[in-house]
Amino acid sequence: MDDELNSKLKPLRERIDAIDAQLIALLNQRAAVALEVGEVKKHYNAPVFRPERELQVIARLQDMSDGPLGNDHISAIWREIMAASRSLEKTITTAYLGPVGTYSEEAMHAYFGQTIEGLPCPSIDEVFRSVEAGAAEFGVVPVENSAEGAVSRTLDLFLEMQLAIGGEIALPIQHNLMTQSGTLKGVTRVCAHPHALAQCQHWLTANAPQLERQAVASNAEAARMAAADSSVAAIAGERAAAHYGLQIANALIQDDPHNRTRFVIIGKQLAGVTGHDQTSMIVSVKNEPGAVYKLLEPLARHGVSMTRFESRPARVGTWEYYFYIDFEGHRDDPAVAAALDDLGKKAAYLKILGSYPRLR
């Protein structure tokens, strides 16, 4: 049986080895050209990372492919190829909500690739401050969750800080219950970020009602605590389990199997037009009848489709709000530019957070 199997596999493996030899030669050729591109960018002081260009490359390759690789496979492969090429030009530092093992770190790698220098921060505030101060070129922050809604602190910081949104990524949130032993024997409490505890409350009530629930700063911090104390279970992702040496006692315990968190990429760099873009802004209006309708009317009149509308108290005056709005198109698109011009004349306050490639 083994001899017959090996005889059938041998020629196929030899073909794969030959293709791999071609691939490594071509990848090195590509990297050499990327270095030449880097020298041209350096001469003109152009940014190393251009998200709109990278997404255009991936979209073009997806259109060219006849399979069996799917679009997700192509995206994952080419993100890493381009990330490796970028790292030959310059090491890019990206701040994220830490410590190591958080979903924010996972989102960072999903967007930038593995060859990125991560800067873990203890809070979302510190992610913004690190980018503002130049300690990191970019930051990755959660902006909304499909189950819990908007991340209020991120929205507030967009109002305070002068940073632009340059990209976005949605990450499936897969919560796992983990311990030192991989069982709940001797475990008395479960620790996690408050959002994670809320997203798993029905499972915990049905399957581990005896565990005390303790909210901590992040799921990765919960994993660190569980690694140091056998009486603690943590709710976190697989990356945290691997980093802290924990065993998964129960996998995929989130109540909503479609739970996702949307993250945005913040920085000082503005993204160019791709033809598949989104713009985010903050506006406020005078407290008068019909004010919100009058505010949004220019978007409808110019054919601009709104994709998200969120309100936050202005914390000044009485019953006054800031509105966080996402809509399709780039601020440089003629229809969007015309709508923003009209909208700016009606708004009491208007801040464009950025135009960037939107999720496909």
UniProtKB/TrEMBL annotation:
Residues 93-268 form the Prephenate dehydratase domain. The keyword Isomerase applies. Its main location: cytoplasm. SMART domains: CM_2. It comes from the Bacteria. Pathway: Metabolic intermediate biosynthesis; prephenate biosynthesis; prephenate from chorismate: step 1/1; Amino-acid biosynthesis; L-phenylalanine biosynthesis; phenylpyruvate from prephenate: step 1/1. Residues 280-357 form the ACT domain. The keyword Amino-acid biosynthesis applies. PROSITE patterns: ACT, CHORISMATE_MUT_2, PREPHENATE_DEHYDR_2, PREPHENATE_DEHYDR_3. Its EC number is 4.2.1.51, 5.4.99.5. One of its GO terms (molecular function) is prephenate dehydratase activity. It catalyses: prephenate + H(+) = 3-phenylpyruvate + CO2 + H2O; chorismate = prephenate. It is found in: Cytoplasm. Residues 3-93 form the Chorismate mutase domain. InterPro entries: ACT-like_dom_sf, ACT_dom, Chor_mutase/pphenate_deHydtase, Chorismate_II_sf, CM_dom_sf, CM_II_prokaryot, G/b/e-P-prot_chorismate_mutase, Preph_deHydtase. Keywords: Amino-acid biosynthesis, Aromatic amino acid biosynthesis, Cytoplasm, Isomerase, Lyase, Multifunctional enzyme, Phenylalanine biosynthesis. Catalyzes the Claisen rearrangement of chorismate to prephenate and the decarboxylation/dehydration of prephenate to phenylpyruvate. This is Bifunctional chorismate mutase/prephenate dehydratase. It comes from Paraburkholderia denitrificans. The gene is pheA.
